[in-house]
Design a protein that fits this description.
The chain is an alpha+beta fold and 308 residues long. It has 2 domains: 117 residues, Trna Endonuclease, Chain: A, domain 1 (3-Layer(aba) Sandwich); 139 residues, no CATH class. Helices cover 43% and strands 24% of the residues. The protein has 9 helices and 15 strands. The strands form 4 sheets. Strands 8-11-12-13-14-15 form a 6-stranded mixed beta sheet, with helices on both faces. Strands 1-4-5-6-7 form a 5-stranded mixed beta sheet, with helices on both faces. A hairpin with a 3-residue loop joins strand 11 and strand 12.
Length: 308
């Protein structure tokens, strides 16, 4: 009789467990299920998430981000988990600082973690930011944390090197608009873009590639200004003030707008560059997108039609 009751209870408990798992999984998206499965197979990330949950339970949501950083680092040290706390590293190219990286936590060879305290959800720039850090430290796994909600939120970010770089200097130079930019300048610029792509690949943010390309072109003897300052004038000649153009001004002849991790070059990108060309009095411009899977470009005339 006892064995029969035990068997019935076991069967009932098994059914309840099955239905609990079914309800739990039914409330998750496919990406959440996949992320949860990856975490179950990544015990190190699981431990870091557990420590982050401890910090969130103790501090609650809504305090300054630095407190979460410091307390999590303290908890990790207490259990002997090696990590770098907000390390600052420079990306040097041709003797110039192209960019500066300062992630929140780096676990050498294992994980990069970024801690946020957000009112809304994660934004695309948060993913771009952590991917840059993963690329620089050559760590494929990243974790984004949001301590700003009632419960701790986290997202796993996997960085993979794109295999198809899809660009060469000859193809870019072949599209140069006639008489708008000298052949020598175009050749140096196109070769510089190809060199940056070959050495660093894809995956960095736009400011990184802008710094890399500026360092490359300056080292090759072309005067290259980053975010040049210019005067804003109305058609009647009245001066409104000064502004910085979000581009490179090269040799007084060419403006280059550098984009990264974009799906495509948009009509807005073309319009913005054309405004910068007008303000800087440059005859020609080039938009370069170090995209998600390949590099794409578009030449733009200062007062004409965008060229493919």
């Amino acid at each position: 009789m006892g064995d029969k009751v035990s068997t019935q209870r076991f069967g009932k408990d098994k059914d309840e467990t099955f239905w609990r798992w079914k309800v739990f999984l039914s409330n998750l998206s496919l990406s959440q299920i996949f992320g949860w499965f990856l975490l179950m197979n990544d015990p190190f990330s699981y431990v870091v998430i557990g420590k982050a949950m401890e910090v969130h339970r103790e501090l609650g949501p809504g305090v300054d981000e630095l407190f979460y950083h410091e307390l999590l680092s303290e908890r990790l040290n207490a259990v002997g988990i090696e990590h770098l706390f907000r390390p600052r590293e420079q990306l040097i190219h041709r003797g110039m600082v192209a960019d500066l990286f300062e992630p929140d936590l780096v676990f050498p060879g294992k994980l990069v973690a970024e801690l946020k305290c957000l009112r809304g959800g994660f934004h695309p720039e948060h993913y771009v930011q952590i991917i840059c850090y993963q690329k620089f430290w050559q760590i494929p796994t990243g974790l984004l944390f949001d301590f700003g909600k009632d419960g701790l939120l986290h997202r796993r970010v996997n960085y993979q090197i794109a295999s198809d770089l899809g660009s060469d200097s000859e193809r870019i130079q072949a599209d140069v608009p006639d008489s708008n930019v000298e052949d020598e300048i175009a050749s140096v610029v196109c070769n510089g873009i190809s060199h940056v792509l070959a050495e660093y690949g894809l995956g960095y943010r736009d400011t990184t590639y802008r710094g890399l390309l500026a360092a490359e072109l300056n080292a090759d003897g072309l005067g290259c200004l980053i975010q040049p300052l210019t005067t804003v004038r109305l058609n009647d000649g009245r001066v409104l003030g000064e502004t910085r153009c979000d581009c490179l001004a090269v040799a007084g002849r060419l403006g280059i707008q550098v984009l990264a991790i974009r799906d495509s070059i948009t009509a807005t990108d073309v319009a913005v560059l054309r405004t910068h060309l007008r303000l800087l009095d440059l005859p020609c411009g080039l938009i370069v997108n170090f995209g998600k899977n390949r590099l794409v470009h578009k030449w733009v005339c200062g007062r004409g039609k965008a060229l493919s």
